[in-house]
Specification:
Blueprint lengths: L15 H11 L5 H23 L4 E5 L5 H6 L5 E6 L2 H8 L6 E4 L11 E6 L8 H12 L2 E11 L8 H10 L8 H9 L3 E9 L13 H12 L10 E8 L2
Parallel strand pairs: 1-2, 1-4, 2-3, 4-5
Antiparallel strand pairs: 5-7, 6-7
Length: 247
Amino acid sequence: MGWFHGKDYSKKFQNQNEAQHYEKGVYAPGSYYDLMWEMEKEFLKERINVIKKGQKKIEYLDFACGTGRVISYVEKFVDISVGVDIAKEMLKIAGKKLKKSKLVQRDIIENPLTGKYDLITSFRFFLNAEPKLRHRILDSLVKNMKPTTSFIFSIHGNTFSLRFIVFWLSRLFSNKLSQMSFYDVKEMLSDHNLEIVNYTSVGFLPKFLYKVKPLRRFLYKADRFLHTLKMCKPFSQILIFEVRKNA
């Protein structure tokens, strides 16, 4: 199922330096992932608006909420919002961003959540988590889903994107990149009686080009245009899925 780099992801952000790098490095203003987040937010808002049409009240869970990027955006659209993460240092950063959400530090495998939610999100977790951890987390989260719950998550390293060039180069030197395809995700979900009901993708152009700051504005406009083309959808770096329980 895809390619996994072999580290224990649950321990990655347990120290302050890793948490700060994620916040100020990976998602620094104007960075590649910060710009892609602008398009990811649009998909989230669109799907939330659809959920709202059939719900009087939305209870929301953000799993592996990290520094609060996703939950701080979503909380204004929902009635109740909860963020859960195992990493205390990440939650310290998240707490400064939130206006009404509750944050919980917890290993949901050892200490599962008991509520059921109308919307669950999990961004940038499943790609880097080792396969066994992915399945154990899904086992837990499925118990927090109603039959109508939308579970939205991202895979930020699509096997069939142009990122494969960097992936194969990394294998020659450090072997530190993971990747998954649409089909890997579908297989993973099938083990938990979950099906894909919607998906989108962002980031067709290679990430390394965004390191050239004078090109960023042009590249972002080009990526926004490519985002609208169905033919590019399977080949973008970031895949975002909306899934539900099989009826």
